[in-house]
Amino acid sequence: MPTSKDVAQAAGVAQSTVSYVLSGKRPISEKTRKKVEAAIEQLTYQPNAGARALASRKTRVIGLVIPFIPELEMGSIMEFVSVIASTARQFDHDILLVTDDEGAAGLRRVVGQQICDGLILMQVEDEDERLPVARSLHVPVVLIGIPRDPSGLVCIDADFEMAGEHCVRDLAAAGHSVISVIDWQPAVMDRHVNYVDRFLHGTDVAAKALGVTVLHLPGGTDRATISESVDKALASTTGNPAFIVPDRTIQDILRRDLSGRGLTLGLDVSVIGSASPTLAELQPIPLSTIDLRPAEVSRRAVKIMCQLLESDSQGPHESLELVPTVITHRSSTLRPQ
Amino acid sequence: MPTSKDVAQAAGVAQSTVSYVLSGKRPISEKTRKKVEAAIEQLTYQPNAGARALASRKTRVIGLVIPFIPELEMGSIMEFVSVIASTARQFDHDILLVTDDEGAAGLRRVVGQQICDGLILMQVEDEDERLPVARSLHVPVVLIGIPRDPSGLVCIDADFEMAGEHCVRDLAAAGHSVISVIDWQPAVMDRHVNYVDRFLHGTDVAAKALGVTVLHLPGGTDRATISESVDKALASTTGNPAFIVPDRTIQDILRRDLSGRGLTLGLDVSVIGSASPTLAELQPIPLSTIDLRPAEVSRRAVKIMCQLLESDSQGPHESLELVPTVITHRSSTLRPQ
DNA sequence: CACCATCGTCGATACGCATCGATAATTCGA
DNA sequence: TCGAATTATCGATGCGTATCGACGATGGTG
């Protein structure tokens, strides 16, 4: 592998000159620049990352802490990961994976060894054991998700409260007076990610404001639980029933249950779910969805991180950004009256 | 951040001694070792990765090239990524993400900058533009998937041919004389990943050996295509029909189509699909599946990579490893006669 | 024409660790 | 008891880059 010294020799200049051509931190004459650039091209020179990190104290790598195989909803996690990685490249950074099975020690490790300049944490829980560590690390940390106490932390997430409000508002506008919200599956509820509460709170707020009734019913990945919840929902209204089902795994089960009862989506009953546009369109009856904008959340997380890295101000930062959600009505909801 | 020099000072030894305590490459007396370890503990010293890489010419980082958001089957990709990352940690390595939108240039970049010691490529296609680059890089490369010409390359993948054979064999044993294989969705077929051919070939081989008929029918993510394929399948047999549906997205559509025709899985018709055990069990009629062992493939890919890195022999390696697949019969297939 | 600011480049040094050769301390055999 | 063979440790050097101070060349000003 050629080094900057080789380049310097080939171009007939000093090594420091090569460095300045690359960084642009000092003026270089057009002639010299050309010579150096030609030599770089010639030798296919690429700067050594380790040496660069050692000298500049910047690795240009961001650590991404991914959840510990939650078995379900892996697809949506991958969307975050993928977008985060390519956005990072746009800011001339790379992504190092940190799996959550290393726990908080993993964070200390990658920061301590100075493998990366900052950390992005996914799936932040209400009382997350990683938070005290995150606060004590002397590198920027961006959380995707909002813990109970976000003080001293930089957080970003979809605006779940707005999402809940919009779902109820639109269903109310379609004439539903009783709206059933099916909880996430127990595995998610147990994790105490507080977007659940924010979403449910949003539905309550809208319900109060609009004078409609919102029912919170248990979710589950077995048909019995869902069937029971549907029973309760049907018993509670004389009009057309409406369901909000933010958990992707539960959607299929609910749809099957409803059609088993002879109810037709968009005709007798409204259902708002959550899925990628592609998947939503693929359904027998295209599903109306609330889009939680994972790609946009990912992009902004990286952007915030890179801004923090540039401004490299040592002081503790604190901010909270909510990404607006979007409802798309397809065919599974009644038309507004 | 403390350095090894700080540790040396605290322990009253030379910096090189600290280094030898850490690496074990020279004998150290018990007394000195204790002193140094105490100082390390005391200062919470962690070696600087950049300096280490610079001096040792090893980064202990593996580049993982992930597919460019194929929109579908992201869940299964995440399983690879997750297992690869944690397995790498077991071998004391880290994973750097390289997104495929950088293309072959991305590979040159991370290797040229010496950000990582080797590369793992996912979703290798038949004629992959990255292969010539992979062969020319002077670092170990492990492919997940098998290109048309694997010469000079180290490949690992699930044994799709065996998978195809086993599916046909078991369905034949259950009394089916005509077996329909539904292709992957067009998006996958177009990508020319050759596991498709290997799987289909496996079904043909078994069919010939057992004297049963295998029909290859088009797949698709729309109900019309699937419905047509089912029509053809039903028209081709007087006995109970049997389906093999390796594409996860298509499974739901097929199941719905069949039940719409009044056919009951495991009673009137056999279906073998592909899904994680958890998901398979969740179905109304638990799905018999062919398990392509993504976790095992991932683990072995990392293991092979780490072996290559240790033996750091420069010469071009070449190997091909196939991971046996496993059929699990649940309730969607007829009992063997 | 002398003087000073600016521009462009060079040389030297630091970054933190691994590693090699050398040296001091110890042990062993004859 | 002396030298040889170990054993344990130190000092010095190199890895490749960024960056700082210095210096010669250039151009403008009075």
Structure explained in plain terms:
2 copies of one chain form a homodimer. By secondary structure, chain A is of the alpha/beta class. Chain A folds into 3 domains: 4-47, lambda repressor-like DNA-binding domains (434 Repressor (Amino-terminal Domain), Orthogonal Bundle); 61-158 and 295-324, Rossmann fold (3-Layer(aba) Sandwich); 160-292, Rossmann fold. Helix content of chain A is 46%, strand content 16%. Chain A contains 14 helices and 12 strands. Chain A has helices at 4-11, 15-23, 30-43, 49-56, 74-90, 103-112, 130-136, 160-173, 186-189, 195-210, 223-235, 248-260, 277-282, 294-310; strands at residues 61-66, 94-99, 118-121, 141-144, 154-158, 178-182, 213-217, 242-244, 270-273, 288-291, 319-323, 326-328. In chain A, the strands form 2 sheets. In chain A, strands 2-1-3-4-5-11 form a 6-stranded parallel sheet, with helices on both faces. A 6-stranded mixed sheet of chain A has the order 7-6-8-9-10-12, with helices on both faces. In chain A, helix 8 (160-173) packs parallel to helix 10 (195-210) and helix 11 (223-235) crosses helix 12 (248-260). Chain A is elongated and about 85 Å long. The relative contact order of chain A is 0.12. The model of chain A has no long low-confidence stretch (mean pLDDT 92). At the A-B interface, helix 4, strand 1, helix 5, strand 2 and helix 6 of A face helix 4, strand 1, helix 5, strand 2 and helix 6 of B. Strand 2 (94-99) of chain A pairs antiparallel with strand 2 of chain B, so a sheet runs across the interface. The first copy, chain A, binds a DNA duplex (30 and 30 nucleotides) through residues 3-5, 13-20, 22-23, 25-29, 32, 47-48, 50-57.
